[in-house]
Amino acid sequence: MSAARSSLWGVRIDLHTHSAVSDGTDAPAELVAAAGRAGLEVVALTDHDTWDGWDEAQRAGERLGVEVWPGLELSAHELFAGEQRAVHVLGYGVDPSDRELGGLLERVRQGRRQRIPKMVAGLNRLGLELTVEEVMALAGTGVVGRPHLADAMIARGYVAHREEAFDRWLRDDGPLVVHRLTPSTEQAVAAIRAAGGAAVLAHPWGRGAARWLTPNRIEQLARDHGLAGLEADHLNHDVAQRAALRRLAERLGLLVTGSSDYHGTGKRNFPLGAHTTAPEVYAELRCRAGSHRRTVGRAAGVYGGPGRPRGTGPDDDTRLMTQGETDESDRDRRRG
Ligand code: AMP
Ligand code: ZN
Ligand code: FE
Ligand code: FE
Asked: Which side of the chain, N or C, has fewer Cβ within a 10 Å radius?
């Protein structure tokens, strides 16, 4: 850390973690306790497409003296060579009473639930016996995802751990691609900002994503859509990628964050605090969250304010997301 003599020197901050409310394995309170044991002063809970873990995490944080910053990791997509490719956008400090973002999250979660029977059918066709009920039971009341499919495969003895399930069947470019409903990256950034949050691209170049999140595209997201930062320090980036993302961030005036992407025992070798975020960056992110709420969306009538009715303008997320659904059924047919 270069600004080493700031008053917050030495404070350890991890801004990307998952609890069992999505596809991690620790309950939110357990995660916060584990963060304390790992020597973190600040942890952001960023479950996929939900804020349902916030209350429990914040109560635990108050009890244990760990600062919990509420966040989420919003699923989004880029179109690359005519195909939908996954992008994750971290949103910090959003207002959980924001009805537009709440509605978007609900639709994305519904898309996740609707994908499971299709993926189970695909696995059945590939000769793996598995039921939707087994998968949903493992997700419990939380947000279901491919990791729960992996857990069902582990329970059946097909694979030893989640990575093996992803490597053999579930990965994005694997034999079983089933798309789900997600906003475009700029819609995700806009929804986070309109709800008073700051948006950071999660692991922007992890797992081959540099092909669609090019420097030009990131520049556009920063300049035209108000992206606040890049998560450069992530275990899915090699040293050269981290350095290149830092240079890009510097050129574009973006903040650089670092984190663990902890998933409990669900993701081996991603321990809490594996990477951390500089205190100055955390302070600046907190500053940006909440500062632009009235200038985006509502006041301009974009998100259903008095300006114009929903569904009539370029920022309406439902309309653009329909494309994903069409792609999905096309791909199902092609692959089936
Ligand atoms: P989904 O939320 O259904 O789109 O699944 C994506 C999630 O699966 C990610 O957020 C990771 O937690 C996990 N994941 C993705 N790729 C892998 C992989 N290769 N090995 C283990 N987990 C993965
Ligand atoms: Zn995850
Ligand atoms: Fe992610
Ligand atoms: Fe994550």
From this structure: C
